């Protein structure tokens, strides 16, 4: 089972949709279990695939892999909520980009730990792997599977087996290519690139994605 915590947001919904279409068992976690069930029902009807919904802790307790798709300022509170449900061998995947909006513009709010993923790793039990991925993927395109994703996905992490497992899952998304981005410390570079894409989308419209040549 794979949990998507923060499944009510655009990116979280898109991840849940793509995972379910890839044949994975998916559960959406929400602060209130009823909201999680409601969103799961709506997405299930949209794609004609079963998605479960429940509270955050319950979703984590059901799952081996947990995608965290929440605002960066909610990291501390969320980790306190879900820590009791984490077990050795679990994989926690950060898709978080620490952005703030200043007027019409978006700005990166780099945590003192260096990145949102690094902050999560410092506050996560030692035997739980932390991976970062999917920050540079257009959320709206994930929500519309009839469109080609047409995007590379950089995956960073310090545990090779966990990173390989997440890369294989991402490769099941049509027209997505998973690229090994090295250690988790490189997540700050990916999060900054994601911030640039958000700003370019604001300026030019559309859905900006990245393809890397020569890899």
Automatic annotation (TrEMBL):
The keyword Oxidoreductase appears for this protein? yes
GO cellular component terms, semicolon-separated: plasma membrane
Report keywords, A-Z: Oxidoreductase
Q: Which InterPro entries match?
A: NAD(P)-bd_dom_sf, NpdG, P5C_Rdtase_cat_N, STEAP_metalloreductase
Question: GO molecular function, one example?
Answer: cupric reductase (NADH) activity
A Pfam family of this chain: F420_oxidored
| GO terms for biological process, alphabetical | copper ion import; NADPH regeneration
- Is the keyword Nucleotide-binding in the record? no
Signal peptide location in the record?
A: none
All copies of the Pyrroline-5-carboxylate reductase catalytic N-terminal domain together span 2-97
Q: What is this protein called?
A: Pyrroline-5-carboxylate reductase catalytic N-terminal domain-containing protein
């Amino acid at each position: 089972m794979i949990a998507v915590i923060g499944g009510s947001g655009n990116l979280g919904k898109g991840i849940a949709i793509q995972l379910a279409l890839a044949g994975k068992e998916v559960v959406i976690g929400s602060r209130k279990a009823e909201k999680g069930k409601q969103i799961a029902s709506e997405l299930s009807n949209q794609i004609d695939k079963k998605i479960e919904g429940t509270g955050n802790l319950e979703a984590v307790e059901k799952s081996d892999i947990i995608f965290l798709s929440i605002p960066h300022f909610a990291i501390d509170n969320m980790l306190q909520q879900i820590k009791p449900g984490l077990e050795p061998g679990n994989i926690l995947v950060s898709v978080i980009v620490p952005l703030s909006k200043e007027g019409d513009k978006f700005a990166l709010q780099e945590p003192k730990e260096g990145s949102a993923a690094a902050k999560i790793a410092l506050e996560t039990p030692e035997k739980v792997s932390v991976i970062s991925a999917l920050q540079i993927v257009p959320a709206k395109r994930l929500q519309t599977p009839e469109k080609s994703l047409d995007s590379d996905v950089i995956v960073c992490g310090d545990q090779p087996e966990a990173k390989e497992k997440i890369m294989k899952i991402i490769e099941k998304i049509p027209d997505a290519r998973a690229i090994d981005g090295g250690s988790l410390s490189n997540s700050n570079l990916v999060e900054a690139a994601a911030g640039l894409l958000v700003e370019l989308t604001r300026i030019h419209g559309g859905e900006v994605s990245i393809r890397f040549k020569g890899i």
